[in-house]
Design brief:
The chain is α/β, with parallel strands linked by helices. The chain has helices at residues 30-39, 56-67, 102-112, 133-142, 176-187, 204-211, 246-257, 277-285, 330-337, 359-369, 402-412, 434-440; strands at residues 11-13, 21-24, 43-44, 46-50, 71-74, 80-84, 95-97, 118-122, 145-148, 157-160, 164-165, 168-170, 189-190, 192-196, 216-219, 222-226, 235-236, 239-241, 263-270, 288-294, 303-309, 317-318, 341-346, 373-377, 380-386, 394-396, 419-421, 445-447. It binds shikimate-3-phosphate.
Length: 448
């Protein structure tokens, strides 16, 4: 196989999967690794971040942290990043580029807001279309100057930080990125910052702050943080072993889940309950799942292994409070719906329209091209599965979105004819070795 992961070229993914029993180790969790990179700006000494490989989003955030004055070194194996931060932050340039990383842009906006500096946060075409009013509103209320230089509340995001005051803020939608942005600003604020989220989004920021002993409490839907005042706290630097990314693991688990005779085990994967809702959904669809949390790994995040054994799947309904825990896995659930028996319905997920692309439209279009019946709603979709996928060779548009590319690649393993996944290189945003790992699982992937 040529190396599609290194290029944005299309790949042809052949149907079927030869490996019956495969083991996968996913790359470092990108949510956690990016938080560690950003929060290393608050640490004295050397922060060491270790994981099984970092995706492009982590590299973008590392470069941004460097542009804010830190030294970041990646070891030759690509599995360890070492960060030494200056005291405070000392931007090397006014413009800070975040590539495709929404987490990087939103969290850094919060951190920078607490310092007397001015930066302009920019990114690639996809990031420049993401809504940023959701972070500008609370940061302005805290006292930062935030200007959205793009049309309709889009980036570039100009942040001029300074003295902040704590706020009481109810998030309009469950968003770990917005919650984390406010908490990072809250660290440097005078007084208490209280954030209420309407649903249980991922809590990696809260867990990290608690490891450092920050005065943060979580009670019901409210998270409260007593601010340190300007220029914020300093935490001791340390070494972190980042769990494997559950959201990357999900593609490989899905590969094993839908056909009797297949089995996939993922090792060293993060099992934070706010991230691993996909396991419950797979179980609801009929897959057999065994999981074990190990003692090794995080002293702050649960880590373990999961094994899935394939079964014939049935349709499932995913809505309401289930959504935040599977937000990144919804495209994958929708494509699995195409090979399940019955209808799979996803509702209350309008957020999918403002991810790296409009994921509801992208999934609906791809599935329709494959002849699958799909009904699209503002906040989700319904996919009618017939227990199998009978398709002709079909080109799938990914809109440069890693999760769309990986979801359809998995679907190819259940198809009757190849899927051509366009712009396949985007998978490396979160899963740097995705295509090679797929091949190691017994799938056939060719340059198209
Ligand atoms: C992320 C939170 C989620 C998720 C994204 C990463 C994070 O976004 O979709 O891939 O690292 O906090 P929202 O919090 O905006 O839903």
């Amino acid at each position: 196989m040529s190396s599609p992961a290194a290029s944005p070229e299309a790949v042809r993914v052949l149907p079927g999967m030869r490996g019956a029993e495969v083991v996968v180790v996913p790359p470092a969790d990108k949510s956690i690794a990016q938080r560690l990179l950003i929060m290393s700006l608050l640490c004295r000494g050397e922060t060491v971040i270790r994981g099984a490989g970092f995706g492009a989003d982590c590299h973008s955030t590392a470069a941004a942290v460097e542009a804010l004055g830190a030294q970041v070194q990646l070891d030759r194996s690509g599995t360890t990043m070492r960060v030494r931060a200056p005291e405070g932050i000392a931007p090397r340039s006014r413009e800070i580029y975040l590539g495709n990383s929404g987490t990087g842009m939103r969290l850094l906006a919060g951190l920078v807001a607490g310092y007397p500096v001015e930066v302009v946060l920019t990114g690639d075409d996809s990031l420049m279309r993401r809504p940023m009013t959701r972070v500008a509103v609370p940061l302005r209320r805290m006292g930062a100057e935030v200007e959205l230089l793009g049309a309709g509340g889009r980036p570039p995001l100009r942040v001029r930080g300074g003295r902040l005051k704590g706020i009481r803020y109810e998030l309009p939608v469950a968003s770990a990125q917005v919650k984390s942005c406010i908490l990072l600003a809250g660290l440097a604020a005078e007084g208490e910052t209280a954030v209420r989220e309407p649903g249980p989004s991922r809590d990696h920021t809260e867990r990290l702050l608690q490891v450092w002993g920050a005065p943060l409490t979580c009670a019901g839907e409210w998270i409260r943080l007593r601010g340190y005042g300007g220029p914020g706290p300093y935490f001791p630097a340390r070494r972190w072993d980042v769990p494997g990314d559950f959201s990357s693991a999900a593609y490989f688990l899905a590969l094993g889940a839908g056909a009797p005779g297949r089995a996939v085990t993922v090792r060293s994967v993060g099992l934070n309950p706010r991230r691993s809702g996909f396991l419950e959904i797979l179980a609801m669809m009929g897959a057999r799942i065994v999981r074990q949390e190990g003692a090794a790994g995080g002293d702050w995040e649960p880590v373990g292994w999961v094994r899935v054994e394939g079964q014939r799947l049935t349709g499932v309904e995913v809505a309401g409070s289930l959504i935040p825990g599977v937000i990144d896995e919804l495209p994958l659930i929708a494509v699995l719906g195409a090979i399940a028996e019955g209808v799979t319905v996803i509702r209350d997920a309008a957020e999918l329209r403002v991810k790296e692309c409009d994921r509801i439209a992208a999934v609906a279009e791809g599935l329709r091209r494959l002849g699958v019946e799909v009904e699209e709603f503002n906040d989700g979709l319904a996919v009618t599965g017939r227990g199998e996928l009978r398709n002709a060779e079909t080109e799938i548009e990914t809109f440069g979105d890693h999760r769309i590319a990986m979801s359809f690649a998995v679907l190819a393993s259940y198809a009757s004819a190849p899927l051509i996944v366009k712009g396949a290189g985007c998978a490396e945003v979160s899963c740097p070795d995705f295509w090679r790992t797929l091949v190691s699982c017994g799938m056939r992937v060719e340059s198209a």
